[in-house]
Structures are given as structure tokens and as C-alpha cells.
Amino acid sequence: MKSHLALLRGINVSGQKLIKMETLRKAMEDNGYQNVKTYIQSGNILFDSLENSPEAVENQIHDLIEKHFGFDVSVVVINQETLESVSKNNPYLKEKEIDLKKLYITFLGSKPAEENIELLKKANFEPDEIVIKDRVVFMKYNNPAGNSKLTNKLIESKLKVKATDRNWNTTLKLLQLFQERDSA
């Protein structure tokens, strides 16, 4: 069994694509996933699967949600190693005075092409900042996140990959949940 974390994009936001986590947990268990646990209503699902491939699991969960709930929802699947790497390698943590509430992580469905990375870097989202490493965009908002031009829609349109973001505290909590599974 392989442990995975599925990150859903755009559910339970402003009354759109409403999915109760209890119902989603049950649907996943009914489809063979084990040790299914959700965290908050924004679509964070820890689970075990016989399938090792993140891409295969993404497709399976996408299809399950579409069939069961009738929504087309982007799904990005990552593992504990990705979260550990993100927590250790956030370039903005090196700054002397950093407000952790300004830090967000965008998880990408696949590694973007180099020319698309350049397109995103050239986009105007100042004064906000990004660093892209592999399938992760580290973000520091210098404006309130809700007022920023640096949106998930912009990231997806420039990088040409699916993406979903989480604030820094949620990212660390998801890592903690993975670690708690290891020690159980």
C-alpha cells in the first residue's frame, strides 16, 4: 500500500462544487481506498492505495468525484516526501522577517515546460513573488492573497498544468498528518 495526499481544487468555495468530506470519504472507501482521512473542507485527502502512480490515482479520484458528485474537479496527488521537501526548502523562510501568513504553496499536476515557466515569471503580479522548483511554486504575497494578480488561474494558464494552492500553515499541517500516520 502506498500513502498519498489528494489535493482538490475549487471545492466548497463560495457555495460552489459542494462536497461533504464525510460523503467523499465513504465514496473513496467504497472504491477500495483505505485509511481515508480528510482535513478541512477545502479538499485534502490522505489515503492508502494499491496504486503507486500519482497520475493514475489523480485520474481515478477525478473520475470518482465526477461520477459520484457530478463535478469536474482538478486533483493533484502528492506524497509525504514532497511535503517534507517543501517544508525544508521554502526559499522565503531564509528571510529575517517573514510573515508566515504571506506564504503559499502551489502544487502542480506535472512539471511545467521551461518556456512556460518563463511565461509565468514575465507575467505582471508584482509586488508578489514566486520561486518554482520542479512541481511546486513557492509564493510570497506582499498584497493580501485575495487582492493579488498571482492567482491559481494565472499559474495554470501560463504553466499549462493543473494546479492547486494551500497556505503555509495548511501545508505544514498536512505534513504533520502524514507523519502521524507513520507513527501510528
Automatic annotation (TrEMBL):
InterPro entries: DUF1697. It holds the Pfam family DUF1697. SUPFAM superfamilies: SP0830-like (SSF160379). It comes from the Bacteria. Gene3D superfamilies: bacterial protein sp0830 like, SP0830-like domains. This is Uncharacterized protein (DUF1697 family). It comes from Flavobacterium endophyticum.
